[in-house]
Write a structure and sequence with these properties.
heterotetramer; A: TIM Barrel; nine-stranded parallel sheet; globular; B: Defensin A-like; Rossmann fold; five-stranded parallel sheet; elongated; binds cobalamin; binds pyridoxal-5'-phosphate
């Protein structure tokens, strides 16, 4: 995916941006490491194999257990130690311990009982087994992909019927039509749920609930399709909102390939408490890193509200920050699907040149990352013919600039979540252009003092300036000033605030020593 | 067609009734699916049906692009346009003057995207200073005191704030329509207001790309604004309605 | 839908009946035209009509893109496919063998684009060596003696040549369909043949992107081949029919 | 329209191609000049102002007059001298003389009466008046265009309802939507009619008859539109088939701006007698040249039957020949809308690069000509969404390579002659891309040893080779070998053969001395 630089970018400026982004992140890391969240605790239990609902209810067992510990006032010590202690004491499986805890058949052990070597050993063994499960799922994905590699850019489409069974039908049609990645869009507002629903679901709005069972159903269907088509089809979902780490665990277990996962999206777009998101994203990414799951960051969303010409540098600055947070969580660049988008107003003269410039810039600044390129959405029109051509220009830009993950735009973007043939039409066009323009990028160069190169340099410079400002005031202040997506998030408040807590001294972190900054 | 106000679709000759269609059938690609598509088009009432293409879109589905002639027509003279759409929008200053002539204090309006909907751009376009397509939002009017609560606000919360602020009008935005999400959420707000006996206290306005005045009224709202609505249009409607109510109240 | 063989259009949920339409109304762009479009769609029988866009396309016309649900369905089990389409094509050698078993001399066929039509690519695809999509044309068959007269051949001339060559089959291509040009020209050939008492002397075959077997038969032809027809398919049909006729003649 | 060369073409090769093409043409010119045709004779009468049908019939007066002279066995002397002689003798207008000749109220004068000074004077005056009328029409077009110049590339669409009144509605819609040129497509087989129909017509198939009255009606409508829109809208028709010179006269008189007109099209695609076409095209171009009418040549058609990759050089070779014939008829390069097309099979890898290469090549080889670029037709599908994207790629290629006359492709190309909204959709997309990619061509360059530059060089070399072959065997032999469009035209035969004749020694050519090769 590495291309020789065509924009004559100043490598020192790029280096300074990285340094600044690291400074932004470094300042926050102590605060992040000092904390855990409800979802992190639940993720630990899930990682250890706890699953399913409380008997006779819809409530996930992990929620009931963590809530119970909170009621005890002992959440600061974390859930790992007491559960491990009970397991050691009873010889029961983690799930069984949790079930009994919730049923009241077991009581939380005394604090002292939680800091023994036995407990530590038990926790270590559980964590090891968790990693084993994840690695096994990752290995079997790799096996399936072997000899079935999809061409670049990967064509990525969404399914969003709200019903997992309809989603499967649509996914199979898409895979046959040439889709390389299938993303099951989540129901509106799932990101605000402080739990992961259970079971196969058929009742979402504008998307289908992310549940372990839905993951399993879709992955099984795509495994069959991959085999049948001789082309590995990736499965994508969202580790975003209030349950980032839990969804990462479920995804890792069920062999998902990619997750939408951003260090700031929840804060900016879902008004989620800042520390909640920062702590959650860290664990979720550590899990993705060990499962080889590619994350997709959400900078593209900035341009659905901010102007793509004015705000292009905010996308780039944010990508550096996302990159730095991801490195911190142990993620290699090869797993960072940094997001950007094709959202310049087509009424602007030379809009395509603006798009090519930022697409090429992103490609060159992050040469080792599987860049995710999002199609136009805000300037789509109900005129499906017009919208389809806008997507064609996007498709061309993507191929021309060597993007990696190519989200296919839908002609009906301004109308409805995709019908089965909308997706087909979109894939058909993307394939057509991928074939027709295959070598175009390699064949052309941009005038050193021309529009494209000049625009790219300009955006890079502005991003450096912005990162410098952010490093100056700190990320949290910058967010409350509304630097991204024209959205201001005040220092306090936001959803899920009551789910963040400081770790006590006795907090047992089962992942301690298992994550290290990737360098 | 004898009367030129009686119109139907036009391809390249007046009265030809030409319509383009596309759709998918859950049937494997082949002559049988194509024949089924033709019969279906005939049943929909189309004449001279031409299936321009049938494509295998995978998963056992076949996609069709087709053309046919309809003999349906409408008489333009008999088509009546929704009164909200016909209302002529005043300029910002005119609205302010109109309201200032009648009221002492600015009209308080509260807006939000309710329920699971997080698409704030539409309500922002109506309420925020900046407005939409060069038309300023209600915040900029002297005679409006606009409060925009943003995304994913629960109906209960919206009602609480409206009461607290002693608002005259509640504006809600609904953009997601899949599986009739907008209908469910809009209906729920009305139910809650009615349950609390507060329905008559507010002008209740809905908006969104697939909201029409007719739909909004059906759901118990006072008005609905759709695709491309402008702040000045909404402002004019509220002003006229407030003044009317004020006068009948007198 | 209870029976899975009863199918209708599918958007994203079985049975949703979703159809995309586009058309133009001869009415100036505005709320009235949009309302007219909605009413028209309702009259065509669509439910939950959504006009996704209306655009001023100049000249007093308005273009619409719309979606609606149809409740029409077809029962796939009851759909019968045209026999010509169902005929399984043999390979070139098989056809040659079949014919060689029955006839001594190659079958003479004469083809042309008749009347004003100059689109020879289709008839060339069927008759010329090269064929179409990897399927050789009739010229390459040992048991066909194919004569391709080319473009814009008058029906009189085609008949004259067919008689002169003592042809067994006449193949005509018609591509231009505007204002039913193809119908007029195909009908004219049949009339001339009948007038001269020659109709029964030839197998008469029509082809073109909008020719179907049904249409061809209606016009008095023995068969019709449409979009994507392959030479081997046509060859198989002729061979089977020739042999059948030969045998009934015996 | 001139661009700096981006392909590194060998200017000497280009020069040799021109020399070879001139050689091809030079050999034929004596034969062409030695002949006239029925249509040339009718064109002379039309040029002198004879119009309308024979009273009480549909037959154009000019046909009746020329046929009458043929029946006399005196056509070799041309129609100019005897008609001028009768005018001089009777003092009647040309039209009146013709009407009376046909009615039998006047007889053809004796041959001797046709070679007097009076006759020559009369003819000279009539010709002068004819040029005056043409120049007046051209001047009023220029006036209207003044300050209303359309941007490049000119967006050109066809109307083809078969009914001139419906055509007007569709043309007005198109002009408002942004069309810069409106071509009224002719009814199928008009090109094979050996006369120009009369009056306003409503009964064409796949097009509308080209008649003087139809020209007038449409030009009047477009004049209004140009005024209203502040953008000059050009009117296009066809001087092709059996009546090339006559239609040129009618077009010149009615203020048309462009005519499809090719030196070989009739031979190749309509099986018209070779000498008939060669003689007709010469006079028709001489008329276009004096009327400032841009011609559009028909090489694009080659690629509807021959393969666009294999046969690209035949297009270029033919353009050189068309250019040379046009120069011979006194036409400046600025009036030569040399045609080419976007017809590479989209199933071919890198099809877009092939297209860009030939489009850029054409642009650079004929830098002063208003190149006419034709959209994809043969690989269009009934899937209007697919077809619309193919056109989008064409639109992009056109803007990128600086084409001049841009024929908008229709999404319904594979289905029907355009509906009113098909044209709108097409124009909308072309405008969108023209705006979005405005400066792209100026911003990029092609790798000197890359795909595009290499392909362009290759096509140029092959064209030189082909021209060399044609110059060797002569154009007529080459045509019978099927060098163009894979169509072989035997030396004799073809339609309209009986309408060509050798000029006798007493032949009076009213245009003698009025045309000279443009250099
Ligand atoms: C921007 C955008 C987003 C942004 C929103 C950012 C934000 N802060 O608003 C982001 C990226 C976050 C987003 C997310 C999602 N989106 Co979204 N999004 C869009 C997009 C591209 C543009 C919408 C927009 O801003 N339009 C511009 C405004 C000005 O227009 P408008 O809303 O119609 O408002 C006008 C009128 O309707 C009216 N109006 C609107 N509200 C009100 C209220 C009142 C009181 C009045 C008087 C008037 C009024 O006035 C406005 C001015 O004229 C559309 C596609 C498109 N091009 O339309 C999809 C779209 C709306 N999104 C969609 C979906 C499904 C989602 C998701 C649910 C997907 C998912 N599962 O993840 C998520 C979740 C969002 C949620 N929980 O609601 C669908 C909805 C499908 C449907 N018909 O049901 C669309 C159509 C895309 C698609 N084809 O799938 N989205
Ligand atoms: C190539 C082409 C031309 C070439 C033709 C060259 C040639 N030597 O044939 C040229 C450039 C000359 C041309 C000119 C015109 N064309 Co044209 N042309 C096309 C085009 C692009 C492709 C047609 C084609 O070759 N298809 C490929 C062949 C293989 O397919 P086919 O014909 O369908 O044949 C298959 C089957 O139908 C069947 N078949 C066909 N014939 C027969 C016969 C028998 C006996 C059998 C068994 C089977 C059979 O088998 C074939 C193989 O599967 C189409 C648009 C398109 N993409 O479809 C327009 C199109 C056909 N042309 C059209 C028109 C209007 C014209 C003109 C009249 C325009 C004008 N006014 O100037 C002119 C005049 C031509 C005339 N007098 O007929 C219209 C017809 C509209 C309509 N439905 O009425 C089309 C659809 C374009 C459009 N949208 O306007 N054209
Ligand atoms: C990182 C990320 N998370 C989540 C979402 C989806 O939104 P929601 O919060 O409704 O799941 C997006 C939107 O595309 C995104 O980019
Ligand atoms: C030069 C030229 N003349 C004429 C035509 C049209 O064909 P017809 O001979 O039917 O008028 C074309 C086709 O596009 C053409 O390029």
């Amino acid at each position: 995916m590495r291309q020789a630089g065509k924009l004559g970018l100043n490598q020192e400026t790029i280096g300074r941006c990285r340094t600044l982004a690291r400074r932004v992140v470094d300042v926050l890391m102590p605060d992040i490491r000092a904390r855990s969240t409800d979802s992190c605790e639940r993720a630990i239990l899930r990682f250890w194999g706890v699953e399913g609902p409380v008997a006779g209810s819809d409530v996930p067992l992990v929620n009931a257990v963590v809530d119970s510990l909170k009621r005890e006032g002992r959440i600061q010590g974390g859930v790992a130690a007491p559960v491990a202690a009970l397991m050691a004491a009873t010889g029961l499986e983690a799930g069984e311990v949790c079930a009994r805890l919730v049923a009241g058949d077991l009581a939380w052990p005394a604090s002292e009982a939680c800091v023994t070597h036995t407990v530590l050993d038990q926790a270590r063994r559980l964590t090891e087994a968790g990693f084993e499960r994840i690695r096994a799922a990752a290995a079997s994905r790799k096996d399936l992909e072997q000899g079935r590699e999809a061409p670049l850019p990967w064509l990525y489409v969404i399914v969003a019927t709200g019903n997992i069974h309809e989603d499967v039908k649509q996914a199979l049609s898409a895979a046959e039509a040439g889709a390389d990645c299938i993303a099951v869009i989540r129901s509106t507002a799932q990101s605000l749920l402080d739990y992961v629903p259970e079971g196969a679901t058929t009742e979402g709005f504008g998307g289908t609930y992310a549940t372990g069972e839905n993951f399993r159903i879709m992955r099984a269907a795509l495994n069959d399709a991959s085999q049948k088509l001789g082309r590995y089809v990736r499965l994508v979902n969202y580790a975003s909102g209030l349950c980032m780490p839990e969804i990462s665990v479920l995804a890792a277990r069920h062999g998902l390939d990619m997750l939408l996962n951003d260090c700031l999206y929840g804060i900016i777009f879902r008004d989620i408490h800042r520390m909640r998101t920062l702590v959650d994203q860290f664990l979720s990414r550590a899990i993705c890193a060990s499962a080889g799951i590619i994350i997709n960051t959400g900078e593209d969303n900035y341009l659905t509200t901010a102007d793509a010409i004015e705000a292009a540098h905010t996308v780039l600055a944010s990508q550096f920050i996302n990159e730095s947070f991801a490195l911190e969580a142990g993620m290699p660049p090869g797993l960072m699907g940094l997001g950007h988008a094709f959202e310049v107003d087509p009424a602007v003269e030379d809009s395509l040149l603006y798009e090519i410039a930022t697409a090429q810039l992103t490609r060159e600044v992050f040469p080792d990352s599987p860049i995710k390129f999002m199609p136009p959405t805000r300037y789509k029109s109900g005129d499906v013919f017009y919208s389809h051509v806008l997507d064609a220009m996007f498709n061309l830009t993507s191929v021309l600039t060597g993007q990696h993950i190519h989200l296919c735009g839908m002609p009906t973007e301004a109308i409805h979540t995709p019908f089965v043939h909308d997706r087909f039409i979109a894939i058909d066009s993307a394939r057509h252009i991928r074939r027709a323009a295959r070598s175009l990028g390699g064949d052309i160069s941009f005038a050193p003092d021309g529009f494209v190169a000049g625009r790219a340099r300009d955006v890079l410079q502005k991003a450096e300036k912005l990162l410098d400002d952010i490093a100056g005031v700190g990320l949290l202040k910058a967010l409350s000033d509304g630097v991204f997506a024209e959205t201001k998030r005040p220092p306090d408040g936001g959803r899920g605030a009551d789910g963040v807590f400081l770790r006590s001294e006795s907090y047992l972190d089962p992942f301690a020593g298992r994550t290290a900054r990737y360098d | 067609m004898t009367n030129s106000s009686i119109i139907g679709p036009y391809g390249d000759t007046l009265g030809d009734g030409q319509v383009q269609l596309s759709f998918t059938l859950p049937a494997p690609h082949g002559p049988k699916a194509e024949e089924a598509a033709k019969q279906l088009l005939a049943r929909m009432g189309f004449k001279d049906v031409r299936v321009a293409v049938s494509r295998d879109i995978g998963g056992g589905f076949t996609f069709f692009v087709a053309y046919g002639r309809t003999s349906q027509t409408v008489n333009l003279d008999e088509v009546t346009v929704d009164p909200v759409l016909e209302l002529e929008a005043l300029g910002m200053h005119e609205v302010d003057d109109l309201l200032a002539g009648e009221f002492e204090r600015p009209i308080v309006v509260v807006g939000a995207c309710i329920g699971s909907d997080a698409h704030t751009v539409g309500i922002d376009a109506i309420l925020n200073m900046k407005g939409f397509a060069g038309d300023y939002g209600l915040e900029r009017y002297h005679m409006f005191d606009a409060h925009n609560l943003g995304a994913q606000v629960e109906p209960e919360e919206l009602i609480r704030r409206a009461v607290e602020l002693d608002a005259s009008a509640i504006l809600v935005s609904q953009v997601v329509t899949q599986k009739d999400a907008h209908i469910h959420q809009l209906a729920r707000l009305v139910e809650l207001l009615e349950a609390e006996g507060l329905r008559d206290r507010f002008l209740l306005i809905a908006g969104g790309p697939y909201i029409s005045n007719a739909l909004a009224k059906e759901l118990g709202y006072d008005a609905g604004f759709g695709r491309g609505a402008k702040p000045s249009h909404v402002a004019t409607w509220i002003a006229r309605r407030m003044i009317e109510e004020e006068r009948t109240a007198d």
